[in-house]
Amino acid sequence: MAQVPTEQMAQVVEAIGGPLVYKKIPVAQPGPDEVLVQIKYSGVCHTDLHAMMGDWPIPTKMPLVGGHEGAGVVVARGALVPPDLALGDHVGVKWLNGSCLACTYCQAADEPLCSNNPTLSGYTVDGTFQQYCIAKAAHVARIPKECDLEAVAPILCAGITVYKGLKESGAKAGQSVVVAGAGGGLGSLACQYARAMGLRVIGVDTGADKQALVQSYGCDFVDFMTSKDLVADVKALTPGGLGAHAALLVAVEEKPFQQATQYVRSRGVVVCIGLPADAHFKAPVFDTVLRMIQIRGSYVGNRLDSAEAIEFFRLGLIKVPFKTVGLSELPTVYDLMRAGKITGRYVLDMSR
């Protein structure tokens, strides 16, 4: 292995609201149960913008290095790291950086719900918008060496998150699912995972580019800007017009959350994944009870979900729509994100 430097380039948020500062910072050393990962590529998630702006009700570390979709190579390891995680292995640094592994939730493989202050990459601990990143060895995702690190990076949050949401929906092969926010980073992957799982997909989003992307996966599409009755248009695309069996809400605005219970069928499942700041979910109680609608939240996947999501990618069933730019260009990516002009995912190349 090449010698690890003492300094590195990183994008640092020094105060809530930004701006980002592109500068040199020290390279940290791993603790006994940690590894140091040389980050080759990192996806950019809308959560990273929320972390900088501080508009979620979870306190962020400041100053902060954001990012939680980092794909790279293990270059140093602590004394307590198991031997099956070796120098040179390809791994991913995810949103869940570490958990206690001992509480009731962790023991039940619900480690994202850890009750003992789990650490979150790019939020409560420094994340992947730096060239070298620390992560708990138990929680790094194992990436097969035949997988392209540049293309797999967005799987480490967006892919795992939507795959987990689809599992939570309980939808079975042949059934229908609506993906609200289908043309974005999470939505474009949700469409593909759903298709790979044998589901019929109706994507909801707006714009010709997003429509073309969603339809390229073999999905139906409803443009919420041009639709005169979105609920009716979605239901019309389902067998018998009864509505979808499930809905995955990965949108970054509140309105799609208010529509979902109306276009799922009786006993339909609405899965909330996106986290618009200060948003609320509202549904009519009478209709929800009489039609036995289920409303669920779905957080990031556990370690097994992560391995399964990466395996879909390894098998060639998931193609990440992404554009690569240099780490130095992260502020431009945030500007595009604010303007709602991103189709698919942006990936940062740590070498530039």
Automatic annotation (TrEMBL):
Transmembrane stretches, start-end: none
UniProt keyword annotation of Oxidoreductase present: yes
PROSITE patterns: ADH_ZINC
EC nos: 1.1.1.1
Any one Gene Ontology cellular component term annotated for this protein: cytoplasm
Cofactor names: Zn(2+)
Protein's pathway: Secondary metabolite biosynthesis
SMART domains referenced in this protein's UniProt entry, alphabetically: PKS_ER
Record InterPro entries: ADH-like_C, ADH-like_N, ADH_Zn_CS, ER, GroES-like_sf, NAD(P)-bd_dom_sf
GO terms for MF: alcohol dehydrogenase (NAD+) activity; zinc ion binding
Xref: Pfam families: ADH_N, ADH_zinc_N
Ranges of residues in domain Enoyl reductase (ER): 17-348
Sorted UniProt keywords: Metal-binding, NAD, Oxidoreductase, Zinc
Family membership: Belongs to the zinc-containing alcohol dehydrogenase family.
Protein name: alcohol dehydrogenase
